[in-house]
Amino acid sequence: MTKKIYHFFIIAAVNSAAFFLYANEKPRSIFVQGKTEIIEINDLNSSRVITLSENYSINYNDLVCTGKGSRTELHQKELIYRLGSMSVISWHSLNSVTLHSGSMLLCSSKTTSITVCSVEANATFQGSGTIIFETTDNGGFKFIPIEARGTLITSKGGLKAVKGGRMMLVMGQPSYYGDAYDIDLMLMIKTSGLLNAFPDPLPSFGRISLAIYSQELKLKGKYNALIGDATTKDNLQMWQFGDSNEEIKKKGFFNRFF
Amino acid sequence: MKQNLFLSLALMLSSFDVALFGQTDSQVRSRIEGTDRPVLPPQATGEGTAAQKGKDSPDVSTSDTGAQRPVQLKENGISSFFGYNTKYFYRSNPLAQSGTLKQQATGMWTNTFFAGSGLGVFETGDAVITPYIGASWTINDYIEGGLDAFNYNSAGAYALLLTQFGNGWSVRAGVSYSADSSTVNDTEDYKEYYPNIGVLKSTVLNDSTTGIFDASIGSHNAESDTLGLTTSDIKELSSIEYAASYALNYEIFKFVIIPKYRISYKTYSKGTNNGRDDLSHDAGIKIDYPIADSLKISAYYDYSNRNSNVSIPNYDYKSYDFGISIGLNARF
Predict the structure, then answer these.
(1) What are B247-258's pLDDT values in tens digits?
(2) Is A129 an interface residue toward B (CB < 8 Å)?
(3) Rounded to whole angstroms, how far apart are CA atoms B296 and B19?
(4) How much is the ipTM here?
(5) CB-CB under 8 Å, A186 with B121
């Protein structure tokens, strides 16, 4: 009898530990601004919609949808996710996430491997850093590392080293790389809601500052253009501003002075 | 004490000589000791970069992702800069003599040509390391008060390793060289090697104000003419210097207003200066107005005060400068 009770407690302890470990692996909402809803899909394929509140564990494959002007931060072990407004996202495991539409920020201070999918593309990031993902109309997504170390892998494009400030476009199935641009980190950080519109600063704040500093030291010039959406498989849209004749600021000897 | 009396007597005699011959060794030395030697330009310390100030950006509204403006970068991070700076100013006590604030007040015109290079950008994950080298040449002319005989040229050079950390602190270690040559006599009056280490921390106080703290320790290994005393040593202007400063960088409209305070403690151990300790305070304000990306005009006021533990001769002095400057700075 005593032996049976002993075994019962052992099994209960193991199950409890497994339950808490599993629960800990699921993304948990930390901050919700505006309205964010979860579409829960159960085993019978029926669904229900609930409003996301703080400190709520999201089940794998459930859809998290942010409303207009809404933002949400979720933590999954050491990973930090921030969702922009009008975004739809679902997690499949600790290392796999689908951004159906909108934008998200991923921050990892430890080396990790994570596969990010969009409607039509997917890529695996191995490394650490602060990265913004934004879906594009062509079914792919922009991979924008603010500060990062590691590699990005696509099935058709192979492996590419990730560099802070160098945006890459991932598209197609099997996925490959589109255009890549070095982008103005200072401007991006000043204008990004995913970086600025949350109450707590990211733990990578210092590394982001270093990335800006490093880019400033290497800066040769700035194009008078802003990158837009990718509506086709060919190119990113580019919006020009300022003097159309001045493609690169500071180009030319006298322009360095005046 | 006896030695100090002799020195004092020598200085008195020197003062008498100046009336006859225009300049003396002691006055040249006094001028040298009152000379501010900027070791590093802001380009080499990371102070005042666009990254800190957030300038040069188009007006765009915020979005979740943020505005994505393409830029062109140098792959190896090797950069160069050169420039020219001209200053026209009033100096109340150009020979750094003890006594009143205004002695042999003069106007000065200085013209500085400088160049430098960043020898790469090395990212280590937690820090960015940049080696710098640079050099400068300054022509210093006294244009009022009959002090033309003291006109001199200054040469400077430095090699520096700058490490910037993500928490805003930067650490630098390097060595600089300075030398003054008399324009009239074509003689080298002073030279020094200055190995030094320093730290700098920039703090954004609000949208328009940045605070900059700087501290350094260095050894001035100097050589100059002696004053002819038996205990004199050509290295007696050598000293160990401990310095700290704090500046505010306040932007209003297109103007940048920079009030700054610096304190420095120098301790001497050679020749007639053995046992001498100086405590100096400098307070000033500068207003910069950028005319173009690489061209700015500035107006400034600066007050200096030095207190020494040696009373005979008296090394205490106070002086103030005010004037304007125009700086041209190109970066490649």
Answers:
(1) 999 999 999 999
(2) no
(3) 40
(4) 0.83
(5) no
